[in-house]
Structures are given as structure tokens and as C-alpha cells.
UniProtKB/TrEMBL annotation:
Domain of life: Eukaryota
CDD domains: C2A_Copine, C2B_Copine, vWA_copine_like
Domain C2: 20-147, 156-279
Name of a matching Pfam family: C2
Transmembrane segments: none
Protein name as annotated: Copine-8
UniProt keyword Calcium, yes or no: yes
Any one of the GO BP annotations: cellular response to calcium ion
Gene Ontology CC, one term: plasma membrane
Natural source organism: Pheucticus melanocephalus (Black-headed grosbeak)
Residues covered by the VWFA domain: 323-524
């Protein structure tokens, strides 16, 4: 997803130990200008959706798709929550996206009426869709795009409103709890069933929903559960921005009764429990009609606690090392390395797909590894001198010390192995996963995290053992990236990438999602700009690592070490003798 023109300089072709000297991804400063300029948060609302339910209104959900650069295939980006019984939903769950000014990011919003708990969208009623680009939303007046929903011939499907807001860089979250007293009674037979809805105000004075509490049944004096919300979601980091809170009485049919509202701000709330944080709930209609109207009850802030969310970079600053291991597929299905059709072909002027994937990922990860020594393994080959098959051999020929210096050292060992081993089979992943897991199991204190890059051309032979290895590894500080090269079908790999269904083995589920799979063919640039292909690949395969890393640290309760103080050179005091 990088907006690149032609590289600023041509690739320099030279000879270094018999290897092509390739321009690395880092050689082009053009790339640095394409780090996401900003992140935007998309809020989605609909009006007058189709009603697909017979006895009640639709229960809508919105699914966002983005379009891949190469093959124009649509990929699911995320889903909102389901809102029951409404044709006019204001979805609370937002989509947070990188925004590049120089790129066309095609978006598709699909709407469904949810009829069951199934995550399979084909089991639900389609309500229509809307196509646009991210630039179209951001470029609309007030960054608010209103468009007709289409997709069902002959039907008016309603409209969708998508609002984009640039995110302030605010990492604080707040834990708040509220209660209410003497709310208006809205139900004929019982008391009210109250809940709160929080809205933050936008630059143009409109409001965006950001939180709903649970419903407390049959009381006029509810105490809601404490809830956590990011300051970014609550006020976009602007402490004086108006926060509007509405109080409703819940009704089963979705026609919730409005009890009243009040406004506050982050700055007011941050005073905590005090007389300043008792709010009169006002119903403007009642106030206009009744002279003796005082209020429709009060809402009180019971507690307010600020928590700072830690980021991936906090751990890196605190000294956590990322250890990178690479494992390369040396099975015979890759083709004879001496033939140009082989995926392992050693072209003196151009990296093959294995080399590109290795460089693309390695050159980014190596920045987080202080000693730049990387274990490089191969699998699926017959080794000299006796031709035994190995699924875990050192590319540098030294099983006691498989480390190579830098990505250049890994590349050198890879090319040397191609000349000495015989490509064979089968394609077994479990041995190399277990190899890295043994190291990861010995350092669980958060000081090190392991990333294994497996580059393969094909169909996996030891699926059951690999699943078992991944489930075991999910408890360890490690992530696995699998890059598929060549034209094979990679259906089995999608199963290992636990994005849709969490991977399991013999009834045990993985504790975390630690596998990211991508087919390299999706990233090949048609114009032959390999730097662009590598940049796209790196961006996608590394995107999940920070969250996988943080999920391990969170589950283990490991906080980042404090960053070392900045270095100050010692001051030499000149002592003068008297």
C-alpha cells in the first residue's frame, strides 16, 4: 500500500562474493514519505434501510471491504456490531484505516439483516451496498459522505452516511462508572429499563455515537457497570470538546423512549466523583411544556480512572529484542535451481521470489534486533554427504551455529545451500516451528520476542503436526509469518492463519492468533518495480506483528521496561592545584 513512483536511482548491480548486490528497500527515501500520513476513523450510520423482517424491523450490520492492489479482489476489513430492530442504525464500532493522500483506496460497505449467530454472511439477508473511495469520504464537506445504498434492483435501499475523523495521537483510556437517581418512569406496568448513550461532538457541531452502556432492568435508580473507553473515542483527545449523554428507557421492539440528556466534557469528568459531576437529566420537550418541570432525574459519576495504553514501541524503547529466524522450502516442487522456470533460480541480475520475500520482511525486522545475527534454516532437502533428508538444517552448514550476519549473510547462505543440497521433500513445517519454539520457551519475561518467517511453494504435508506445533507456540513469545511463492493453491495455509477461525489441535484452541499467511503473487507489481512489490509485502505481513506481540505481553501481564535515560557525555572537571 505504498504510493511510489519510479525509484530515485537505478539498482546498482555489482558482485559481492559471487552474489548480486541488490538495492534494499531502505535505499529509497521515497518509501519513507509513504509511511501513513495519518489514521482516520470511519463512523457509519444508515437511514431508511430495507425492512426484511416480518414481525419486527431489520437487525443491521455493516461489513467493510477494501480492494487489493494487484488482482482487484475485495477483502473483508472489518464488521460493526449488530443493532436490533432499527432501520436507522448509528453503529458504535468504528473502522480505523491508514490514509494515504496519494493513493486510491477503494471501499465497499455491505449491509445485512442478521438472522442468526452465524458469522457466514450468506446466512443473512442482504440489504444493499455502497462503493466509494477513502479520499471521497475525507474530501467531502465536513468529511461526511452521504450516498444511496444500491444493489437490490427495483428497491429503494436507503442511504448511508460515512464520516471520517482524523485521529489525534492519544493513548489514554478511562474507566468510568455512572449511576442515576429518580429517573422518569416510562413503562406502563413497571419502572423504566434505563441505559446511557455517549456521543462526542465533531468539528461541525454534529455528534457521533461512541458508547452505549448495558440496560439495567426495572429501576429508576440504576447503577451501570464500569466501562473502559479510549480518550480518542470519547473526545478525540480534545479535553474541552462537548460530550453529550442521552438517557433512554429500553423497549424490546427497538423504539426506546427518550428520558432526557445532559452534556459534559472530558475535563469536567476528569475531576472525578464530586458535586461537579452530578448532572441533571433534561428532556427539552417536557421543559418547554411544563412550567414546574425541574428535571427527569440525575446522573452521577461514581469513578473516573485514567489508564495509559502501552504500545509496541514502548516495549522496543524499553529494550525488548525481536529475534528473526527464516526457514526456506527446499522441496523438489520448486524446480531445478539452474532452470529459469524454478522458483529458486539464481538470476545474477534479479532476486527470485524467495529472495524478495526474505529481504522485504528481514530488512524491516532487522532494525529491532541489536546483534543482527539471524538463524537461517532449510527444510525438505537431501544433505551432503550421505543424502539424508532433513526438515531443519542450517543454511550455513553449521548445525551448532546456524546464525548468519545480517540479511546479506542469510542471502549468501541461501545461495550457497542451493549449490550443495538436493531439493527433495516432503513439505514439513513442524520441525522448524518447534526449533524456534524451543528458544522462545526459554525467555518468557518479555525481554525477547521471536518471529519465524517460513517461505514455501506449496502444499503442506504434516498438517496435523503443524497445527499441534502452532497451538503449543501460541503460549510463547513468538509469531509465524508464512509467505507462499509460486502458482500453487494455498487453501491449507489459510486454515493456519487464524483470522477467521481460531486454529485448534486435538480439541485445544490456540491461545492467540500467531500466524499470518500471504501469497506473494498478490504483491507482484505489474510494471516490474520490485521495490514496490517488496514494500507492499512487508507492510501486509508485518502489520499483525505488533498486535500479536502486545497480546502476548497483555496475557502475561508484562509491562514495558522503562526506557533508558538519554546518554549524556560525562563532564570532565578540571582540578586546579593551589
Amino acid at each position: 500500500m505504498f504510493g511510489l513512483g519510479k525509484p530515485a536511482g537505478q539498482q546498482e548491480l555489482g558482485r559481492s562474493g559471487g552474489l548480486p548486490k541488490m538495492a534494499s528497500v531502505g535505499d529509497f527515501n521515497v518509501l519513507s514519505s509513504s509511511i501513513p500520513a495519518t489514521k482516520v476513523e470511519l463512523s457509519v450510520s444508515c437511514r431508511n434501510l430495507l425492512d426484511r423482517d416480518t414481525f419486527s424491523k431489520s437487525d443491521p450490520i455493516c461489513v467493510l471491504y477494501t480492494q487489493a492492489i494487484g488482482n482487484k479482489e475485495w477483502r473483508e476489513f472489518g464488521r460493526t456490531e449488530v443493532i436490533d430492530n432499527t432501520l436507522n442504525p448509528d453503529f458504535v464500532r468504528k473502522f480505523i484505516m491508514d490514509y494515504f493522500f496519494e493513493e486510491r483506496e477503494n471501499l465497499r460497505f455491505d449491509f445485512y439483516d442478521v438472522d442468526s449467530k452465524s458469522p457466514n454472511l450468506s446466512k443473512h439477508d442482504f440489504l444493499g451496498q455502497m462503493f466509494c473511495t477513502l479520499g471521497e469520504i475525507v474530501g467531502s464537506q465536513g468529511s461526511r459522505l452521504e450516498k444511496s445504498i444500491v444493489g437490490i434492483p427495483g428497491k429503494k435501499c436507503g442511504t448511508v452516511i460515512v464520516t471520517a475523523e482524523e485521529l489525534g495521537c492519544c493513548r489514554d483510556s478511562v474507566l468510568m462508572q455512572f449511576c442515576a437517581n429518580k429517573l422518569d418512569k416510562k413503562d406502563f406496568f413497571g419502572k423504566s429499563d434505563p441505559f446511557l448513550v455517549f456521543h462526542r461532538s465533531n468539528e461541525d457541531g454534529s455528534f457521533t455515537i461512541c458508547h452505549k452502556t448495558e440496560v439495567v432492568k426495572n429501576t429508576l435508580n440504576p447503577v451501570w457497570q464500569a466501562f473502559k473507553i479510549s480518550v480518542r473515542a470519547l473526545c478525540n483527545g480534545d479535553y474541552d470538546r462537548t460530550i453529550k449523554v442521552e438517557v433512554y428507557d429500553w423497549d424490546r421492539d427497538g423504539s426506546h423512549d427518550f428520558i432526557g440528556e445532559f452534556t459534559t466534557s472530558y475535563r469536567e469528568l476528569s475531576r472525578g466523583q464530586s458535586q461537579f459531576n452530578v448532572y441533571e437529566v433534561i428532556n427539552p420537550k417536557k421543559k418547554g411544556k411544563k412550567k414546574k418541570y425541574v428535571n427527569s432525574g440525575t446522573v452521577t459519576l461514581l469513578s473516573f480512572l485514567i489508564e495509559t495504553e502501552v504500545s509496541f514501541l514502548d516495549y522496543i524503547k524499553g529494550g525488548t529484542q525481536i529475534n528473526f529466524t527464516v526457514a526456506i522450502d527446499f522441496t523438489a516442487s520448486n524446480g531445478n535451481p539452474l532452470q529459469p522456470t524454478s522458483l529458486h533460480y539464481m538470476n545474477p541480475y534479479q532476486l527470485n521470489a524467495y529472495g524478495m520475500a526474505l529481504r522485504a520482511v528481514g530488512e524491516i525486522i532487522q532494525d529491532y534486533d541489536s546483534d543482527k545475527m539471524f538463524p537461517a534454516l532449510g527444510f525438505g532437502a537431501r544433505l551432503p554427504p550421505d543424502g539424508r533428508v532433513s526438515h531443519e538444517f542450517a543454511l550455513n552448514g553449521n548445525p551448532q551455529n546456524p546464525y548468519c550476519h545480517g540479511i546479506d549473510g542469510v542471502m549468501e547462505a541461501y545461495y550457497r545451500s542451493l549449490k550443495s543440497v538436493q531439493l527433495y521433500g516432503p513439505t514439513n513445517f513442524a520441525p522448524v516451528i518447534n526449533h524456534v519454539a524451543r528458544y522462545a520457551a526459554s525467555v518468557k519475561d518479555g525481554s525477547q520476542y521471536f518471529v519465524l518467517l517460513i517461505i514455501t511453494d506449496g502444499v503442506i504435508s504434516d498438517m496435523a503436526q503443524t497445527k499441534e506445533s502452532i497451538v503449543n507456540a501460541s503460549k510463547l513469545p513468538m509469531s509465524i509469518i508464512i509467505v507462499g511463492v509460486g502458482p500453487a493453491e494455498f487453501d491449507a495455509m489459510e486454515e493456519l492463519d487464524g483470522d477467521v477461525v481460531r486454529i485448534s489441535s486435538r480439541g485445544r484452541f490456540a491461545e492467540r492468533d500467531i500466524v499470518q499467511f500471504v501469497p506473494f503473487r498478490d504483491y507482484i507489481d505489474r510494471s516490474g518495480n520490485h521495490v514496490l512489490s517488496m514494500a507492499r509485502l512487508a507492510k501486509d505481513v508485518l502489520a499483525e506483528i505488533p498486535e500479536q506481540f502486545l497480546s502476548y505481553m497483555r496475557v502475561r501481564g508484562i509491562k514495558p521496561s522503562p526506557a533508558p535515560p538519554p546518554y549524556t557525555p560525562p563532564v570532565h572537571v578540571l582540578q586546579t592545584q593551589i
